[in-house]
Every structure is written in C-alpha cells, then in structure tokens.
C-alpha cells in the first residue's frame, strides 16, 4: 500500500515529497534515489514487486524534481550539493523510527551519483548503483564553470541549450532515434517519458551547476576513501547505456572501488538494455537480481 508524506528539506525551505510502499511482514527496507528529470512514482511497479517479497520501498523526489520542485530543474539557493544528500538521510531517519529493520539503498543515474556521495557521508550496509557512469574531471569542471558564467549573465533559472547539448544531448547523439530513445528499447517507456511533464523538461543553469558539483565530488579519491569497506555494492547497468559509455564507464568506477579495497562488490551487465533497466521488456531479470542481492 502506497503512503504519501511530506517533510521539510534540509535547506529549511522546500517541502520534500516522499512515498512509502508498505507490505505485510517486512524483512528490510529499500530506499531509492531516482535519476535526473524524473520522480519516485516511476518506480511503483518495481516497488510493488518487492512488496510481494516482503520488502518495504521508499523514496523522495529530489529538490528540483517532481512534487518537491517549486521550479523543475532548479535545486534552490545555498549548499545544494549537501541538501539533496541530507534529504535522503532525513527520510532514512523517518524510516528508522518506523521500522526496526535494515535499510538498504538504490541510486539510479543521477541518483547513483548522489548515492555514491551519500554512502561516503553516511553508513550503508548494502547499496545498488544503477545506470551509473564516469564523467572525467575536465568535463565536470567545464559543466561547472559554464554554469557559473551563464548564471551570472542570464540568471540561475535560465535554461541553456548549450548545457543541454553537452549533457543529455550527448547521450541522445550516441543512439539512433528520437530524443529520448537512449533511455530505453521499450517504446512504451520512451513515449511515456516524452509525454510526462515531470520528465520532459530541461535543467536550469542552477541544476547543471549542482550536477557538476556532484560529479567533481564523487571523482575525488576522498569520497571513496570515506566509504566503509564493509558496504556491499551491486553495480547494474544495461550494456547499451550511453550514460555508462556502453560498459566502459561503469567498469572504470567498479575498478576504482575494487582498487580501493572493496571486496563485497559485484557487477552485472544486461544485454539488449539501455539506461532504464527497470523499464525494459525483460525487466524481470533485473528485478530478480536485485531481490537476490537484498535477500542474501
């Protein structure tokens, strides 16, 4: 059963929208950090599947997203880098008060970038990094500096075609087809995304600057060094995902953790899948692998 709640953001201004999918006789909780230009309700089918296996699922809409946004794609003023991460922790504390159960985490796409920072700042027993990738420091710095420059000229809420072209536009170029074909082979999923006003929008300059900060933060050795070596991490990605540079970027991140002494890590690639592996035609394979990771 889905429950909706709101709580105050760590920025002290926004009200954060969250959903909890409850079930009978729960054995653990999975908390999800969704990706860029989407929202937590898109994970409802996956949550219902896990509910049938006695796993509670919860997640919030990030700042600038879904029903937490005053302006879509705008994270707000102040320390945006930490606010979105701390908002996840605030929901975790709500869940810990309610359930005397282990809480595990899943971050998809931009949510995986946020989650990589989250598990270095807070403790996590298990974490799934889905649709993640590697963006080099140069590209992240260019994104950050361009965002700063454009915001000074046009303002924080300005939508820059150049920044769109350099980010999600670059993924679209790597896959033949329509604007959003890079997210999925599943035609119905692509059309739903394209026709959803809570998905089909562009980040503001402020949003891209926040994204650039995350990319620079998670690229530092310190972020991985501060992550507990006891954390069990599962990397899952579509083989044809441009965000993961068609496996290369995911392998780079996986090997970074491995070289830092992480032994409880696993990597699974899925053939004939793009970015949103939870929404592909044969998604049940992914569902099953994640369930197995959570249960064992």
TrEMBL record:
<dbReference type="InterPro" id="IPR051044">
    <property type="entry name" value="MAG_DAG_Lipase"/>
</dbReference>
<protein>
    <submittedName>
        <fullName>Lysophospholipase, alpha-beta hydrolase superfamily</fullName>
    </submittedName>
</protein>
<dbReference type="Pfam" id="PF12146">
    <property type="entry name" value="Hydrolase_4"/>
</dbReference>
<dbReference type="InterPro" id="IPR029058">
    <property type="entry name" value="AB_hydrolase_fold"/>
</dbReference>
<keyword id="KW-0378">Hydrolase</keyword>
<dbReference type="GO" id="GO:0016787">
    <property type="term" value="F:hydrolase activity"/>
</dbReference>
<dbReference type="InterPro" id="IPR022742">
    <property type="entry name" value="Hydrolase_4"/>
</dbReference>
<feature type="domain" description="Serine aminopeptidase S33">
    <location>
        <begin position="25"/>
        <end position="281"/>
    </location>
</feature>
